[in-house]
Amino acid sequence: MTVGVSRGGTGRVVSGLVAGAVVLASGGAGPAAAEASGVGEYVALGDSWAADATLSQVSARFVPVGCAQSAGNYPKQVAAALGPARFVDATCGGATTANLTEPQSLPVGADNPPQFDRLGPGTDLVTLEIGGNDIGLASAVSECVTGDPGTAVCRDTYVRDGVDAMTQRIAAAAPKISAAIDGIRARAPRARILLVDYLAGIGTTGGCFPVIPISDADASWLGNKLLELDRMLAEVARAQKVEFVDTYAGSGGHDACQAPGVRWVEGLIPLSVNPVGPAVPFHPNQLGADHQARTVLAALRR
């Protein structure tokens, strides 16, 4: 999920930041030793929370640089642990479910081809993390920024007469996620499919104004909308009979309000100590990527 701090498109936010960053071809957490997994071909699909969008360790090995894909993201760590004969990481910052079947235009570099183009009859493992951009949760975060801790800018904008427009968007996105799973099955009928949710980027009981200039009311609203999105993903996984990977459950106490070295998601200030350097605001840092990798690997070993 691409979360920016301006009202521009989410892909533009990440790509614009990347344009001014130093691009590295390596870095991130040390890969785990390959195990005898039996996985022949692994394809990773998803948005920037799957790409673990970064400014300090961008990899263009699998996708254009504008995707801001991390050299240490969880798909690469999972592939390093499993040792498949073929691995392709199609994840890209700003991606929606539409970009699974359509090219994704990026202001920096070439377009990212449709992510489903990487699938084939030989694909036997797929991870998918997507949906945050479909519901517009990314732009909502930037709209919540305020200088007045007593306001509820986002909640009052999205909730009218007891109807929460974001809740409606989450419900409307469910068929898109379900269709994405159908699309994977059509292209990779042998694949084991894991649907991955979003870890806790913000709490559900308040924020940390002014460190992150979002009021407690809006921080709680955002945190609960993220949890609501994850619950929708879990419901789709059950209905579609695919495996659900719950990265949220183990991420409590590591949200963007926590201290450096404790938080797994960066806040508004685009600097990180994990790794040291510029960061994409409101995205998993390397500690978050490591948690995602551990959780996915644990699910695969069940």
From TrEMBL:
SGNH hydrolase-type esterase domain location is 44-289
Record-linked Gene3D superfamilies: SGNH hydrolase
- Supply the Pfam families for this chain: Lipase_GDSL_2 (PF13472)
Instruction: Please list which residues make up the signal peptide.
Output: none
Q: Which cysteines are joined by disulfide bonds?
A: C67-C92, C144-C154, C208-C257
Q: Which GO terms describe its biological process?
A: triglyceride catabolic process
Q: Which UniProt keywords apply?
A: Disulfide bond, Hydrolase
UniProt name for this protein = SGNH/GDSL hydrolase family protein
Organism equals Nocardia panacis
